[in-house]
Amino acid sequence: LVEARMKTVVFQELDFRSISFSDAVEYLRLQSKELDPQEKGINILLKSENGPNPNLSLMLGKTSMHRALKLITDVAGYRWRFIGNMLILEPRPKIKPKRNESRTGDFFRD
Fewer CB under 10 Å: which end of the chain, C or N? Predict the structure, then answer.
């Protein structure tokens, strides 16, 4: 339900210049109330404790909230999930590199 509504909230233009990720999310949340055909807006919870908060620069023509959030969360290293009527944004888990199982040290032995 919320994801479908995100596709109906349409921005005529987005122009973010060196704005923090959290400020961009807050802007989208506030604007969604004005642009939502159902006049509800999108409830967003940003779980950012110890998460990245990079500065973003983004210029888009007419686009949906769904697409805008997809772009900025991908760039910022976040993922989203839905619980009820709430969109939750949280840092993507860090992927641990696989342990190299080759024996590189033996290659140069005499």
Answer: C
